[in-house]
Amino acid sequence: MLKRRRLLFSLLAILPVIAIFAFVRVYPISEILRLSLHKWDILSKKKPFIGLRNFQELLGDRLFHEALFNTSIIAFGVLLITIPLSLVIAALIFHRTRSRFAAFYETAVFIPHVVSLVPAAMAWKWIFDARLGPLNAFLSIFGVKPMSWLFDPVLSIICVIVLCSWQALGFAVLIYLVGFKSLPVSVYEAAKLDGASGRQSFWHLSVPMLKPITLYVSVVTLVSAFNVYAQVYVLASDAQGAPGRQVRVLVLDMLENSFRNYRVGYAASEAVVLLAIVLLLTFVQFSLLREKRAAR
């Protein structure tokens, strides 16, 4: 009887949280799924059910393919930069925790993560400016000619990857620092007695033991990078000032189809595809971690 009361009390305690989560997360996702199966536009009163026709149209949409390709390049580029770099930075900060500047290092690395996206993108837009930007001024010292960073399609993608990696780095370093502080000191002491160097301890002890942290950071980084929007909107405007035209990404393509072309159902189908990609990549990452644990 007492167990039932405790169980009932626990359910009642978490019920408000479940209700809020369902309203904020589950309901919007179910609504998007419903919209993707209808020819839904803002102007028309009729919203006919068309099944998978929106998804069939996506297969032949050149702009959607371009947006999906650019988004994937940005997401995996950010992942490949953020994970190793944040791990190395976290290791350097952790091994200097006795320094009086350790708190300063942690704060300096984390600040980009809490800075508002639009001001940060505007600052980086000035850095990448072809005429007045300090990046071209710095490269000119080494004889490199000025480059149109924000008006070349390939260079624009690189600029977006740099900005997104800079912003994601602080969170990843913070999580890795928590992971480093939870590692058993006795293992490192034993490795030191066996003659292992600091570099060997890092590669053969720290990196394997931090695999669950790496999984979490990689999932969060990849999901955030696939939802890139504000960085592209501000940074990669074309010569006429149209936002994000140099780098077409999925979220911008969705917004354009929804509010410029009034094709809400079609945009919802793009959102479903994005959700499916993120879920698939997350499943693959978790599966790889389980396989490595099983191999042990």
UniProtKB/TrEMBL annotation:
CDD domains per UniProt: TM_PBP2
GO cellular component, one term: plasma membrane
One example of a Gene Ontology biological process annotation: transmembrane transport
Keyword Transport: yes
Domain ABC transmembrane type-1: 68-285
Entry annotated with the keyword Membrane: yes
InterPro entries: ABC_transporter_permease, MetI-like, MetI-like_sf
Highest taxon of source: Bacteria
SUPFAM superfamilies: MetI-like (SSF161098)
TM helices/strands, residue ranges: 7-27, 73-94, 101-124, 154-178, 213-236, 264-289
Pfam families: BPD_transp_1
Protein name per UniProt: Sugar ABC transporter permease
